Amino acid sequence: MKLYDSFRAPNPRRVRWFLAEKGDHDVEIVNLDVFKGEHRAPEYLAKAGLANVPALEIDDETTITESVAICRYLESVYPEPNMFGRDPKEAAIIEMWLRRAEMMLATPLMLAVRHSHPALAALEKQIPEIAETNHRGGERAMKVFDRRLAESEFIAADRITMADIVAATAIDFSRMAKFSIPEDLSHAKRWYEAMMARPAAAAGVKA
């Protein structure tokens, strides 16, 4: 298997972090420079269908895009440690928090970065109002996660799951938009510091 990656982007980092939590694997990582447009090359588009990263090439006929879909497939290949749910009830709870992490936190924070950081102006037209609105949306979402983390060490289960990875990578990426967890959200801060201290978090940002 080949993972087409970009070390500067947050969504590919989710997959690298996920793989690092899994441990030994035989996934080859191929870095693409999005600032050079390598994700738009005809040979890549022929595989992925979209100018997006990450993409997991499973075989000559099949390439999967979308980070969570890729991780779901990898979970079936490398089932331990479990990160999507051990039974129907747990899987549903993890999915619920994963969706919340994606829609309430990751998407707004990524938009805040894309519409505010000078380096990303080369990729799209930036609109400051979009950055400001989504920055505030991320702050509101953090209150929801802080309440949850007051009663749980991790977001969705008694261990790290995909929901934690999606949320943590989004917050770390959002430093580019000068976003940080408010000081009064002590439970979220405790969780985030623990996430960033995990060995897999460091692996997730290294080539």
Task: Write a brief caption for the model.
The chain has eight helices and four strands. Strands 2-1-3-4 form a four-stranded mixed beta sheet, with helices on one face.
Architecture overview:
There is one protein chain. The chain has 207 residues and is α+β, with helices and mostly antiparallel strands. It has eight helices and four strands; from the N terminus they run E-H-E-H-E-E-H-H-H-H-H-H. It has a four-stranded mixed sheet with strand order 2-1-3-4, covered by helices on one side. Helix 1 packs parallel to helix 3 and helix 5 (128-149) crosses helix 7. The longest helix is centred in the middle third of the chain and has 27 residues, at 88-114. The protein is globular. The two termini are 17 Å apart.
List the helices and strands and how they pair.
Layout lengths: L1 E4 L4 H13 L5 E4 L10 H7 L6 E3 L5 E3 L1 H11 L10 H27 L13 H22 L12 H12 L12 H12 L1 H5 L4
Parallel strand pairs: 1-2
Antiparallel strand pairs: 1-3, 3-4
Helix pairs in contact: 1-3, 1-6, 4-5, 4-6, 5-7
Element order: H for helix, E for strand: EHEHEEHHHHHH
Q: Strand arrangement, largest sheet? A: 2-1-3-4
Proportion of strand residues: 5-15%
Distance between the terminal alpha carbons, to the nearest Å?
A: 17 Å
